[in-house]
Amino acid sequence: MSIINKEWFKYEKPQDEINVIYIKSCLFVTCIVFTGILMWIHCLLLITIQNSIYPANAFLKGGTNISEVLIFIVPLFSSIAFGMILGNAVLWLFAYTRKKLEQQATNNGQAGFKKSTSSLLKVSIYILIFSLPLEILGIFNYFYVTTDAIFCNKLLSFKESKISWNDISTIEKGCYIDRNILRIKYTVETSTGLKTDIIRNNKKSRETFFRKYNQFEKLIAHQNISYQLITTKAGMKKLESFYPKQYTKIVKIFLEE
């Protein structure tokens, strides 16, 4: 009997360890899934709120490059924390996984489910307190263009600024390569120094700008505007490879004054 017990114990422990590894793998995958879902919901909510700000007659619109970071990166941290809480909670619903994880936590002197969840919840709340103001700043850091004027809201400001078409004194535009990345720039500036970019460095923003440029060009055609070109050959070549059918328009946008 003693031999049988020793043999049984000899093989039980490795099997338990394998089971715990499987459970922890499931926990890891579950946490990632919940983090992805929460991240998607969070970002979608922020974008929906920002889009509700734009009027119906805005033909160019979007957040700034900083706004995109605040809307798409900052929510990741709170999503990870709450994703871990939900992942733990799902596995806790199953008696077998609950027993195994609690047993290992006890053997290793680690916190059990309740204590670890409580700690995660506190951390999540702290992260939310820190991240929500940043996300709000991201929502209200935007621009949009209508036939009446260009409107923008700068970072750290909740007051919308208006740039009338006849107030535009300078347009800085160009495409260039920076650290092997294609950069697109189209910045309007007034004589008082108020300026805003009306194109962002992403595919959707570029394509919308190219599609709506004829409408934008008509609004600035008769204004007394000086142009600052920062276009490089490498930038134009890269842009041509992306949009060969629109290259004639691209030349007009970034090379002509």
Can you walk me through this structure?
With 257 residues, the protein is α+β, with helices and mostly antiparallel strands. It folds into 2 domains: 2-139, no CATH class; 160-255, no CATH class. 60% of the residues lie in helices and 18% in strands. It contains 8 helices and 8 strands; from the N terminus they run H-E-H-H-H-H-E-E-E-E-E-E-H-E-H-H. It has helices at residues 2-51, 65-72, 75-92, 95-107, 113-139, 203-220, 233-242, 247-255; strands spanning 60-63, 142-145, 149-153, 161-164, 168-178, 181-190, 195-197, 226-229. A 4-stranded antiparallel β-sheet has the order 1-2-3-4. A hairpin with a 3-residue loop joins strand 2 (142-145) and strand 3 (149-153). It is elongated. Residues 1-12 have low confidence and may be disordered.
Quick recap:
This protein is α+β, with helices and mostly antiparallel strands. The chain contains eight helices and eight strands; from the N terminus they run αβααααββββββαβαα.
Mean pLDDT comes to: 83
- The counted number of beta strands is 8
Please state the CA-atom Rg, rounded to the nearest Å.
27 Å
Q: What is the spatial order of strands in the main beta sheet?
A: 1-2-3-4
Structural class: alpha+beta
Low-pLDDT residue spans: 1-12
Distance, first to last CA: 95 Å
Enumerate how many helices there are, as a single number.
8
Biggest beta-sheet profile:
4 strands, antiparallel
Portion of residues in helices? 55-70%
Q: What is the helix/strand order?
A: HEHHHHEEEEEEHEHH
Domain count: the total is 2
Structural shape = elongated
How much of the polypeptide forms β-strand, as a percent range? Answer: 15-25%
